[in-house]
Design brief:
13 helices; Serine Threonine Protein Phosphatase 5, Tetratricopeptide repeat; 3 domains; mainly alpha
Amino acid sequence: MTRCKRVLALLLMPSCLLTGCALRSDKLADGAGLSVQAQADAQKRADIRLQLATAYYAAAQFPVAVAEAAEALRAVPDLAEAYSVRALAYAALGQTAQAENDFRHSLKLMPGNPDFANNFGWFLCGEAAGVRAAEAIPYLEQAANNAAYRSPARALVNAGACSLRVGDGLAAQRYFIRAFQYEPASAVTNLHLSKLYFDQAEFERAQFHLGLAAKNEVLKVDALWLAIRIERKLGNQAAENDLAVQLRRRYPSSPEYAAYQRGAFDE
């Protein structure tokens, strides 16, 4: 946990008689010690509240996460991580103005933090039905290009998804390819690439990436339907039939299975 650092002001005492200086110096030392202890206690309270806020956010108890983050900030007002967690909780609650304010505050306190940049970028990407997606991409790029970031593929996938929202398929493909280079086993990345290659009529590439996705994740209905359409385009009737059996067994009431029954493979 990153701890906030503060500089303690040094109080300059006026000149004093030799006989009184030792006593006053001792009192100053004691006061400084109490101040340091008070800071340590405040930081400890903030850390505990921040951990609780993070846990409540992960458990989807967003109002409680907001309250715990506020308590962390009451103890340490410049705790960037608390602003970031509270922003995520506000966003989940649909309180977008409060969320954006906290996202920006966290980045003001820690402008180089790639997690904060990625989270804010993804928030902007989803704002107002995606109309702020273009505004989001610089934040996502900032996160992805940070050499210290442990999850560059996450930011790249988010940038790819945002590019799709603004209708830039070529940029999206570039982001997804970069994400694939970092995490070639990622089901999310491979599904995105499979869909893009299918739309470009590059069916063997689409099949390759969907196969990688299927190795690490049970295909959901949209991915299973895509797999059927790919095999049909490639003329692999046996593979298509096997996938259709899965679609019927697992998703019998889905629009995708209804489309399969109609033979609507190009809708």
